[in-house]
Design goal:
flat; alpha+beta; single chain; 35% strand
């Protein structure tokens, strides 16, 4: 399930599944994602979902600055 919530201040994205969860050791994927979220002024949480599966939640300021070294994206740009 994907849930996207926005307010004037924040954008919150939560992704959950009802699968087996994660038994793999931590890799660069989630840590790299966490670094990018933090560099944009947000926070990332991930781990087992209630009962079964996996949950990832990112909360970002709705007017987050572009990460260092990247130009802001323009509306309609690929």
């Amino acid at each position: 399930m994907v849930d996207l919530t926005t307010t004037d201040d924040v954008v919150e994205l939560t992704i959950t599944d009802d699968g087996r969860g994660s038994t793999a050791p931590a890799g660069d994927g989630l840590s790299g994602l966490a670094e990018r979220v933090v560099s944009a002024g947000g926070r990332l949480a991930h781990g087992p979902a209630d009962g079964r599966g996996f949950r990832l939640s990112a909360v970002l300021p709705s007017s987050a600055p572009a990460p260092a070294g990247r130009a802001p994206e323009r509306a309609g740009a690929p």
